[in-house]
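ok so for the tutorial part 2 we go from a plain amino acid sequence to predicted C-alpha cells. step 1 is just haveing the sequence, like this:
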Amino acid sequence: MTTNEPRSKFYELLQQQVHNEFNASQQYIALAVWFDKEDLPRLAKRFYTQAVEERNHALAIVQYMLDTDHHVEIPGTGQVRNDFSDPVELIELALAQEKEVASDIETLAKTARNDDDYTGEQFMQWFLKEQVEEISQMSTLLNIAKRSQGNMFEVERFLDRENDGGGADPTMPPVAGGAL
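step 2 — the prediction. this is what the C-alpha cells look like for a chain of 180 residues:
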C-alpha cells in the first residue's frame, strides 16, 4: 500500500521535480518545433532528443517513488514559451533551464542528506552528474551559435560533425514504463 502522508521534504521536492522535468520536456519540444519550422533539422533533432531525455528523467523519479512506496501524482506542465526572434535566444533559454534544474537537483540531494535519507541521496547522484553534462553541452552549443554570428548553418554543420556519444546511459536509474 502506497503511503500518502506524512511525506518528507525530500519526497515533496521529488514530486515537484517530476513537474519540472515534464515542463522542461514540453519546453524542449517547443524549441524543437521552432527549429523545425526554420528548416534547421540538426538543431530540431537535438531538442526533440532533449525533450525525450527530460521525459525519461521525470519517469525515473516516478519509478523511484514507486519503488520506495510513495504516492505519485502526475502533474500538468507549466507555461511554455513558443515565440522567439533569434535562434540564440532558444539556446540561451535552454541553458538557463538546465542551470535551474541543476540547482533543483542540488537542493534535492542536500535535502535527502538533511533528512538522513541515504538511498534518496544516492539516487540523486546520477542526476547531479547528468546536470554537469547537460550544462556543458548546452554551454558549448551556445558558444558555437554565438560564434556563428547568425549563420545557423555553421551550427548545423557543427552538430552534424559532433559525436554525441549516442545511445542510452546504462547507469541511468530505471524509468517507469521504460526509457524511450
